[in-house]
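Anyone? Bumping this.
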Amino acid sequence: MVLLEAVQALAVDEPAGLLPARQQMALSLGWHIVLACFGVAFPALILVAHWRGVYRDDPDALRLARRWAKVSAVLFAIGAVSGTVLSFEMGLLWPGLMGPYGDVLGLPFAFEGLSFFVEAIFLGIYLYGWGRIPPRRHLLMIVPMAVAGVVGTYCVISVNAWMNMPVGFRVVDGEVVDVEPWAVLLNPGAVLQFAHMWIAAYMVVGFSVAGVYAAGMLRGRRDRHHRLGFTLPFVFATVAALVQPFVGHVLGLRIADTQPAKLAAFELAETTESPSPLRLGGVLVDGEVKGAIDIPGLGSVIARNSFTEPVQGLDTIPVADQPPVNITHLAFQTMVGIGTLLFVAVLVFWLARWRGRDLLQRRWFLRGAVVAGPLAVVALEAGWIATEVGRQPWVVYGFLRTPDAAGDNPDLWILLAATAVLYSALTVGAVVVLRSMARRWRAGDEDLPSPYGPEQGADGGVGTVER
Amino acid sequence: MSLPVLVAAALFVGVVAYALFGGADFGSGFFDLTAGDARRGAELRTLVDHSIGPVWEANHVWLIYVLVMWWTGFPESFASATSTLILPFLLALLGIVLRGAAFAFRKFAPTLGQARLYGAVFAGSSLLTPFFLGTVAGGIASGRVPAEGRGDLWTSWVNPTSLFGGVIAVGTCVFLAGVFLTADADRGGHGSLARGLQRRTLAVGIATGVVVFAALVPITRDAPTLAAGLEGRAAPLVVVSALAGLATLVLLVRWRLGAARVAAVVAVGAVISGWGVGQYPWLLVDEVTLHDAAGAEATLVGLLVVVGLAAVIVLPPLVYLFRLTQTAAWSGALASRHGDQQG
């Protein structure tokens, strides 16, 4: 509480709703983003497994597809409701953004809603279609889901890209005019940012799912089911982990022009140095960098693709326009660090395999594979924090400051506390349920019982309904 | 029709669709809640699970459609409505979150005890959402949401129109769900279950009908603009709703379950449409009209493009989904246990 008061005392000139709104958004979006990854990447994974099952007559793959579909039903349900929370929160927390800019940024959300609709419909058809739709047509039902997930991601990211690089409107005498909603949907920042997020989703899902089967192998379950359950998602994760650093690099290059303050915070550049060093770790204390390891010249190469071009220093940017430097820097480096680690790890695995050594026999590798999923989630969250916190103090870069977007509602703290409790309960519920599914599958109980216990099978009236 | 009115009409189609499809899902929670203990209620709960399982997520998306259309098409009013009606919105949201999660969890719950816990959460929260969304509608319709900024946090939704709105919303949801579940139970071959549902649905239908028409009195005093609309332009819809509601009851009694579903949909659709037509041309009654609340023209055109695309892209698979859930192959799984053997 002391800390809370200190923070509020510091923020006297800000609306009472700002800090709780920020924390609320951070909590609910940070939670949703993980589920969103599963909504985007899981259908593709299921599609490949199901395809293999049907066209190569592979019962193991088919069983994987079937189980993954049931897992995705649970994750999709809580992803759908947490996504709904977010659409309410846009207005509840940020009236200063949604009032003036709602008609600027709304169209991509309308398309996102459209793709979400498609995803929800085909999810219903697909999940209930097992055994009820001819196999090949049933397989086709997952294609629209996979496509819709990708389209939806693009739409949401296009709004975020617009917040970073606003286009499609002018401000005249404080009024937003000349709105071009299509320009927001097709804004120049969207494609790269989308690619980065999309690949991140494949990393998160690929490593997480592979990790589950790695954990099974560590416990001695070394059947084909587990090998395939590891390899399929791991191939997805591999491709994603290998491509991601390059996409991230290209994406980063434009920040020097579009958001120099963010780049300076990423690189912890307190002054402009030519060429700039790459700064590993470290924090900024009273305008001085402490505890960083500098690698001369590499900062320019990585951030600017040049041996001489400098990273513009924070000293050239007014303090009022600087983001929280340390959070941004550490989050950015966490993302890059984990990304690099995963890049190396998948290379090592496939190189070893190419040379005839199967790392799945090594416990240290399996342990690493188990940790890779959570690590990918951490990298995802860190990357999201880096880009969002790095954009501060702007919500619409250069046009609308975050304090001006927030409402004047101090009671939002209560909401935040309630949300924290609710989301914790949801997380516990999801974990308990998913673990119990896995346990019952292991026990050979492929068909999970319907809601109210096994007794009703005996009365002859109602049988198993499964999803 | 002008652009803002077209967009508002498209938005309102979403409101009606959500009230009908989402409403039937939410109303199922009532029957689930009152089904009795685990053994006695198993048959009904399995029916609920089977009926709404494939469709509830798609039905839920109508709400997101409405929200997005609203904040994009009429942004300032969305900001003022959400900040004024923050409490009922949050409570409705709580219901949505708990219900969706608990429904998914129940299906895969590890023990009967947990299934009962999740089931109770699912069923209870199913009633929260329609009630509080009903109070939101009442707050808007009675002119308690300002065009800009924040109105009163409490009186905006604790007032006669809002409270009646909440009760009517719950009643119509339960009524719709009852009609649909009765027909589903009958088609699935659960005769005694269907007859029990029929009796309870009749009771709910009569009670809701009484409340709807009793509410007209306090609404006349509390929300004069809406009342004038209901007695004027929207009067035919009110009459249609009353007739269709009566017809539903008669059809239920005479065991014409297919026709009863149609009549129930007409009755509820007409009530909701009556509200919309009754408060036209206001978006926030007595505060701002559709025209004045509308956002940029280019954006409204964009929204209509999305609506057109939705009609082409979303409706066919939606119809396919609903049709599948009505086929013998899908219903059959309720009566037999071999669902898992093919595929």
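Late reply, but here is one note on the structure posted above: Confidence is low (pLDDT under 50) at residues 453-467 of chain A.
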